[in-house]
Every structure is written in structure tokens, then in C-alpha cells.
Amino acid sequence: MGLFTKYDQEGPGVFSDDPSHGPFVRFFQSYASRFLKLCMMNLMFVFFNIPAILIAYVGSIYFLPLINPVFNPTQFQEYLAQYGIMSGNSNTTGQGASYQLYFLLILLSVMFVVGMLLVSVGPVQSGLCFLYRNFARDTTSMIWTDFVTAFKKNWKQSLAASLISLVLTTVILMNIVFYNRIYHGQAAQILATVFVMVFVFFICIQMYVYPLIASVDLKLRNVYRNAILFFLGRFVPTMGIFIVNIIVLLIIPVLLLLSVTYFGFAIAIFYYLFFAFSFVHYLNTFFVWQQIDRYIAKPQEAAEQSSEAIDAKEEHTEE
Predict the structure, then answer these.
(1) Residue pLDDT, tens place only, 23-63
(2) How far is residue 242's CA from residue 130's CA, in Å, rounded to a whole number?
(3) What Cα–Cα distance (Å) separates residue 147 from each residue in 123, 126, 292?
(4) Would 319 be classed as within a structural domain?
(5) Which residue of 17, 65, 123, 215 is surrounded by the most CB atoms within 10 Å?
């Protein structure tokens, strides 16, 4: 991890590492103690990411039918009719049901894409990650003041990161579409699977980008390089965090929508507005901060203490 430089020292302390509790317990203790603040930050994320939500909506409508023709609205309706979704005495009712389900499919896709920061307003996320980082360190944080400060400090780098993410997401999805629908050679299915795996790995790498931008003073290319190093070095736990993200952003809302119909839809909207994004992003930042603390903060602290000891010894010798 030698690429890490200039650890950001803002804040009164370092990560509160209680040896009596593991990271799992510490995370939920920290989350519970700041629950209302995190709910407010979730609402901030949704509000400031309205442009990203609109872009993700257009992208979902465009790419889903290309990836699988079933996701074309007309074919989606016909597919549902085969399974009895269409009403037996009313075509209109069947159309209405299919369009509602199609809208829910698009909604889930949009929430996942935005929640995993594939499409996002980068400066907003760097500001929020700075707050999450402070929570993970168990330091005092003024939400609006610290958010604005981090936004101003990191807006150029984080905006570039959001544009990179948008471009790479588009390129990867286009390759998935090409090898899944257009190219029919012998290796088509293999290559389509490879790009699906690349897409998953890119999502995992993206989990590290904004916490690194908010915590470490690095050029953007080194932010991505270190994000890749962290992903490779912590592959298994990173994939575990990714699965939790899937459960929170997709599985739980689907269960809500399937189990309690219209009331479930209202709960799902409330869930996305006040809980899902901040939980996922704080979990990700909490996990990433542990890596930063282990590979940057503590080694740099030890190096500084060693340097101070050497200087003190030289001064004592001179005397």
C-alpha cells in the first residue's frame, strides 16, 4: 500500500478501536447512536442526487430492453400475461398492472444504480463520505458545515470521479449488450459473462473511491489505483459488503413490494428516502476507513513517532 500519501488529519482523533468489540458490533453501535443524523443525510443524498436519478432513469429505460428483450414494455406486458397477470375480463386492468410492475422494475434499477454510485453527483458524495468518515472515527461532526467544507475541498476530483464512473458504466453495459445480443460467435456467452463480472468488480472498486477522496490527499489516478489494491487485498470481505448492499438496495424493497402491495410501495419509498442509501454508504465507508486506518493512519503515525524520536536523540547527542 505504498501509494498512500498525506493522510488527512482533520478531526480530533483516530478511529475508536474498542478491543472488547469487533467491527460488526462497533458499526451497529455507531449507527444506532447517529440514526437520526443518518436519516437526514439519506434525505440529503436523495435531494442532491435528483439529476443522477433522472440520468439513471433514462439509462435504465434504454439499457434494460437491450440487455433482455423481456424488459421492453410491450414484451413485458405479454410476458406477464402468460403468467396470468392480465385480468380475465379487462385488458385495461392487465395493462395497468403490467405498467405498474414495469415502473417498479425501473424504480428498483434506478435506486440500485444510484445507490451503488455508478451514477451520482460526486461532490455531494465526497461531502457525505467525509461525514461518514468522521462518524467511523467517532469524532464530532457538524453536518452542514463539514459537508460544505468537504464539498468545496473535493468537488473537482469527485466530479471527475462521477464522470469516470458514468462513462465506464456505460461502456461496460454496452459490451454486455453487444456480446449478449449482437455478437453470436462461439465466445459470445463467455465474453458477456466476463463483462458482467467486470461490472460487479467495478461496483466493488467504486465503494472505495469516495471514502478515499474524502480521507486521503491523492491524485485521482492513485485514488483508483489504491481502490483496486484494496479490492484485491480485501476481496472476500469486499464481496461480503457488496452482497449486503444488494440485500439492502434490492432484496428488501422487492420483498416489501411483493408482500404488502400498495402499502408496501409506500413503505419502500419511505425506506429509500430515509434509510437505504445512508445505511449502505455508511457501512461501506466504515469498512473502507478500517482499511485506511490500518494501512495509512497507523503506519504514518508510527513513522512520525519514530522520526520524532530520532530527532530528539540527535538533539540530545549534540547537547
Answers:
(1) 888 999 999 999 999 999 999 999 999 999 999 999 999 99
(2) 21
(3) 10, 8, 20
(4) no
(5) 215
